[in-house]
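Sample intake sheet
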Amino acid sequence: MIIKKATTKDLKSIAEIFRIESSRPPYNNKRTPKKALNRIKEAFRSNDIYVAIINNVIVGFVMVQRDSGIKNQLWINEIWILKLYQGQGIGRKIMDEIESIYKKKGIKVFEIVADTRKGGSREFYKKLRYKIDNSMVFMQRRIK
């Protein structure tokens, strides 16, 4: 497996993974290929995206962003692995690589916001030794 920083040539493959995997239960986010690509292109402008490649095929990606207000903090915004490749340690390897890359750049805190009510994200991050920060609360208000 190769893990490398994504280029614009990778965006269609990344968008397709994002579209397919986020449409599966329990997430059920239905996006057209065009909307998924637009979302990934927009994110590519302000995030670093790394891809996992097996046999010349992109099988997953992680999207990260430095916190502009805190010098040594990194946000992990998205991580998606194709279902066929899940459970094989790819997510762990890509996260280990991200931590290694950004630790060398002075990052000391890795932050994740994840919907832990859905899927296996809570267990995945616990295996990676991430801890729930009970000092923060995610709040939302929808305006109609």
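Comment: The beta strands are 2-5, 48-54, 57-66, 73-81, 109-112. The domain at 2-127 is CATH 3.40.630.30 (Aminopeptidase).
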